[in-house]
Amino acid sequence: MKVEITHDIACSWSALGYARFRRAAEEHRAGGGALTVVFRPYQTAVRSAGTPLDGGPSPLAPTARAEQIARAAAADGLVMRTDRIVPADTSRAHRLIALAAAHGRAEEMVARLYRAHFTDGLDIADVGVLRSLACAVGVPWEAGKDGERPRADLAPSGPPVPVFRFPDGTLLVGAVSLAALRGELKRAALRTAAA
Fold first, then answer.
1. What pLDDT does 149 receive?
2. Of 89, 97, 146, 176, which residue is least crowded by CB atoms under 10 Å?
3. 73 to each of 46, 115, 137, how far by Cα in Å?
């Protein structure tokens, strides 16, 4: 079974959605389910310092909204230190994910990039930082110019991210609940087995 995730490393909703998906995927695999995850890059606008973490308008004050997202993420295993986030262009990070996928390490690389950006306060646009993260995950850093590395074609503008696409075309959009992700993985596995 294959699930495609369209996301951006600098998007707090993508980070929260992936933290939940990762938990659901681990449970699915622990129960004997097979699962392949494919990452589709999407680049949101680079957030400048002082911009609300969620990147959009909210009836809550920006700091209250950021705290709300951070609390939700912490419950799903991702610590968000909003005061440490370094605004960054994520195109190189997406290329690193493509490189990690070629070595079977994409899921681990994505989790590490989210942690680097939201927890560790690292600049995920910096080549030195990305090289270090690749090494930490066990992805060989390939020498050469960026253009020689695997491509990560950015998804066209469309719905908000993250977007989870299941084998039958079902889409879950946004930082959906862990229960919704568990349920859809179970339904998708049943549909795949029946086919």
1. 44
2. 146
3. 21, 11, 22
